[in-house]
Amino acid sequence: MNITVVGTGYVGLVVGACLAETGNDVICADVDQKKIDGLKRNVLPIYEPGLEDLVERNQSQGRLTFTTDVASAVGRADVIFIAVGTPPDEDGSADLRHVLAVGEVIGRHATREIVVVTKSTVPVGTASKVAAAISKHATRPFHMCSNPEFLKEGAAVDDFMKPDRVVLGVENDHARSVMAELYAPFVRTGKPIIFMDIPSAEMTKYAANAMLATRISFMNEIANLCEKVGANVDLVRRGIGTDSRIGPSFLFPGPGYGGSCFPKDVKALVRTAKEQHAPLAVLEAVEEANERQKHRLFEKIERALGKELKGARVALWGLAFKPQTDDMREAPALTLIHELLDAGASVVGHDPAAMHEARRRLGDRIEFAESNYDALEGADALVVVTDWNEYRHPDFARIKAALKRPIVVDGRNLYDPAKMRSQGFTYLSIGRGKE
Ligand SMILES: NC(=O)c1ccc[n+]([C@@H]2O[C@H](COP(=O)([O-])OP(=O)(O)OC[C@H]3O[C@@H](n4cnc5c(N)ncnc54)[C@H](O)[C@@H]3O)[C@@H](O)[C@H]2O)c1
User: Strand 142-146 to strand 166-170: parallel, antiparallel, or no bridges (unpaired)?
Assistant: First the structure.
């Protein structure tokens, strides 16, 4: 099939590369000239495991091309995926400007009967708005489909190639059969394609992210309570995660959720609920709890260093909002960095993938270290912010020798509190007893 993917960010690039990998002829179109120039040379704008190989192979074999000419990319497509950003507007609702702009371009430039797929995360009713934008200019029939994306940054290629399920909101058999054919190679192991109406598909994406964010905030609050009452959240997590009704995923406490999706999607769903006079009180509390949680690491380091925080040098391991990505959108590390700088501390950061992105955002407001151990030289304390694998089993003797004071704040509960204390560390983590 001839596929055009409009928007070549985390989602669009993965979708385009994976659809090319299964033999489709794919054009990825984006208005960002620099991004497209880089991609033509196989230089990826993002870090995503496995994606570079996929782009390189499919581009060299002629199934994947990149362009800034969105209009002509639209003109040669049978299926068009809209995968542009939907950032939060000032009131928290999803900003649909980019999505609707693409709708207009599709209306003006489609040359044949097409299926138009909204891949971006968009509120219920958006597919109708896109259809209206297309209709203003369309001369050919088109069929809408809502196909929310559930990939996780850091495992995006795997998630797309082997999805738990594919959700497709369609309103007629044409869209249904085209999309079923397109996705058939990805569900050969029997994972379901779930067809539904378009509003339900649009809502499914928000409900999924809202549920996951709820689990995280819930466990963060339980962890905070564990600290007060002297319980250990690691044990509580195992105790409840083995209940088949609950399950073990998304029960790890930490410094609050971040990234490009949970914060904005929770906000947008809360906003929709308010507009509809059907408030989502649980979700409003989830968001408030997350805002509070983002300050927990600073509170701990402030407690550990006391008055000496001013003028202290604090090392951060991990800047990305989670491991295996360079994405720093709404990263807890950013909140912590700003709080440390405001308190008069200096910061030296390390991240296996996000240093470039951190430099772009923070400039010379913090220092950057070549290795995680370099970051410790002359630092007064270490804060582990992101649970990259390479931080899981470090050389503790080396950490202790490099730090001026043996203070470790572990925002991901990577280390054993008893062992850390027996090695002489002042060790603070999340929810593991009274500190
Ligand atoms: N990142 C994720 O993990 C993830 C997962 C699932 C769903 N989503 C959703 O997918 C959508 C895209 O997210 P992303 O993280 O890939 O965003 P992104 O910001 O990484 O990429 C968006 C791209 O769209 C391009 N763009 C904007 N307007 C355009 C236009 N008019 N024409 C052509 N290109 C245009 C931008 O230049 C950018 O390259 C969002 O709605 C997001 O909520 C994201």
Answer: antiparallel
C-alpha dist (Å) from residue 103 to 10, 100, 112, 161: 20, 5, 15, 27
Q: Show the tokens assigned to 409.
A: 């704040």
| Angstrom distance (rounded) from CA 71 to CA 106 | 7
Residue 98 contacts residue 122 (beta carbons within 8 Å)? no
Query: 183 φ, ψ to 5°?
Result: -90, -10
By annotation, the residues acting in catalysis are 261
How far does residue 184's CA lie from ligand 1's centre (Å)? 25
β-strand partners of 124: none
Q: Could you tell me the distance, in angstroms and rounded to a whole number, from the CA of residue 226 to the centre of ligand 1? A: 38
Instruction: Kindly tell me the sign of the dihedral angle through the C-alpha atoms of 85, 90, 92, 97.
Output: negative
User: Taking CB atoms and a 6 Å cutoff, what residues make up the pocket around ligand 1?
Assistant: 6-12, 29-32, 35, 70, 83-86, 98, 101-102, 120-121, 149, 151, 153, 260-261
Show the CA angle centred on residue 369, arms to residues 367 and 373, nearest 5°: 135
Which atom of ligand 1 lies closest to the CA of 13?
A: 16
- Rounded to the nearest angstrom, the distance between the alpha carbon of 62 and the centre of ligand 1 is 24
**Measured at the alpha carbon of residue 325, what is the angle toward residues 387 and 344, in degrees to the nearest 5?**
65
Residue with tokens 């470039």: 356
Model pTM score: 0.95
* Tokens 């058999």, residue located: 173
Ligand 1 atom closest to 86 (CA): 41
Largest CA distance in the chain: 74
Burial tier of 161 (Cβ tally within 10 Å: 0-12, 13-18, 19+): middle
Tokens coding 181:
């054919």
- Kindly give the confidence (pLDDT) of every residue in the chain, 435 residues in length, as a single tens digit, with 9 standing for 90 and above: 999 999 999 999 999 999 999 999 999 999 999 999 999 999 999 999 999 999 999 999 999 999 999 999 999 999 999 999 999 888 889 999 999 999 999 999 999 999 999 999 999 999 999 999 999 999 999 999 999 999 999 999 999 999 999 999 999 999 999 999 999 999 999 999 999 999 999 999 999 999 999 999 999 999 999 999 999 999 999 999 999 999 999 999 999 999 999 999 999 999 999 999 999 999 999 999 999 999 999 999 999 999 999 999 999 999 999 999 999 999 999 999 999 999 999 999 999 999 999 999 999 999 999 999 999 999 999 999 999 999 999 999 999 999 999 999 999 999 999 999 999 999 999 999 988
Question: Which of 32, 151, 260 has the most ligand 1 atoms within 8 A of CB, as the residue to mutate?
Answer: 260
Distance 86 CA to ligand 1 centre (A): 7
